[in-house]
Structure formats: C-alpha cells, structure tokens
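Subject: Sanity check before I submit

Could someone independently write out the structure tokens for this chain? I want to compare against mine line by line before I put it in a report. The sequence has 272 residues.
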Amino acid sequence: MNSEIFDINLHEKKIYSQNGEDGILEFIFSKIGTTNKFSVEFGVGNGFECNTVYLLEKKGWTGLMMDYGADQDIQWKGVLKKAWSNKNIGFSENIKKYVNFSKKIIKRKERSIHYTLDIKNERITAENIENLFQKYQVPKNFDLLSIDIDYNDFWVWKAISKFHPRVLVIEFNSSVPPTESKVVPYDPNAQWDGTNYFGASLLALKNLSLEKNYTLLGCDSNGINAFFCKSDLVKNFKIKDIEDLYRSPKYGEKINGVNIGHPPSSKKMIEI
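---
Independent answer below. Compare away.
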C-alpha cells in the first residue's frame, strides 16, 4: 500500500470553481490519470463558476453541461437590462450592484472565450437522467461527473446505473453531522427553499457510494462538495475516516460565532 495519505484539502485552488474544486480535481486526476477526459456537470447555473470549466478551458477536456432554465446569454443580458434600463430607480446602489455583477460575468465570459459554453436546458430527475445521458451521447465510462441541483442530488446519483464516472463531485448537506445518514424525500418537482432542508448528509452519500463501489476522498474546506472515486483506483492510498474527512459549513448564518450553513428548516430529513 502507498504510504501517502490522500489529502485533497492540501490542493484546493479556485480558478473557475466556487471553492477550491479546481485544484482538488487537478490533484485527483494527477494521481489516478485520465481516460477520455470527458466530464458531465449539471446544476451549472450560467456556467461561469462551476467544477468543470477549468478542465474544459485549460486542460483539453470535452463534456456536457446541463441546467434547468439556464441560458447563459439570457441570464447575463437580463442582468444588463436590469442595470441600465430601470428608469424609475436611477443609478442607485442597487443598480451599481447589478452593473458590477454584469461586468464580472462579462469578464468571465471573455476569460472563457476559447471554450464555448453550451449549456443544455434540461430539467433533471431520477427518472430521466440516464435518458439525458443517452440523448447527449455521454460515454458509458467517463472521467468526471459533478452533481449540484440543490435538492435531489442523492436520488439522481442513486438512479444512475448504466453510466460509470471514475470521479464524482456532489453537493452534500454539511449541516448534518457525519454520524447521521439523512436525506430529503425524493420529489421530482421539488426546489430548494433556501434553508438547510436539501440533499443528503455525508454519511448517506458515503453509504450510497459503497453500494456503487466508490470511495469517499474528502470534502472541500467550506463544507459544500464531497469527492468520490472508483474504489479500485485508490485502493493503494491511505484514506481517512469519514469523521476526519467531513467539513462543517463555512457559510451562511452564525450562532455564537460559528457558521451553521443555511437557515434551519422546520422540515425534517428522513433517516436511511
């Protein structure tokens, strides 16, 4: 066995990603290699701050991006429209925020000009995910899958059986301790309500990963995404226990100076 401890947090680097996912993924693939350099990511928003753009733009990858209602041109043109045509408000602080945000998006758009972002407008459910993969000719075996749909992430991953990514990035609910296996009930029409009622706990995802022959490698330092890899690819590395890999939320509300993540919900997740 390799004596090296697989510590992804030492390699966090943010270029296009929301947190340090760019550096983490670069590190993982430096250890396990690549095959077809094909990625699938859904829940990408406008495409300018997500987990695969760095690979697509700088590392020669190809892939599929999907988001329900995501037309990046409509989105950032809509921001400009709000910024410049609201005659009733004038150039207020609110408008300045819109302008600054629009400039940020335009800058990122220019920075990504070498790779054309083609985001497919698709509603993603457990029932249709594999049909969407077939529709867009996703290879049965590919290098990377990233899931961030804010609610049904666990159930969509569970539904994927005919396609086999070597590495998976998935949002987890870090407001739930790593000793509890909890998930929101599946609802194909559900949308995140802005509270901590979403997704699945790290332990629930780890248990699912074991069913699928994946190994939990760790989480980003902000407690947002968890990283998994096909177990046979990292069998010679030392992987820490879940209690050491878990990261608490470093975002959202604070109680007694400690982040608790998104506002608490009165709804209860189910134990599985």
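---
OP: Matches mine. For the report I'm noting this point. The helical segments are 21-32, 53-58, 72-85, 93-111, 129-135, 153-159, 202-211, 242-245.
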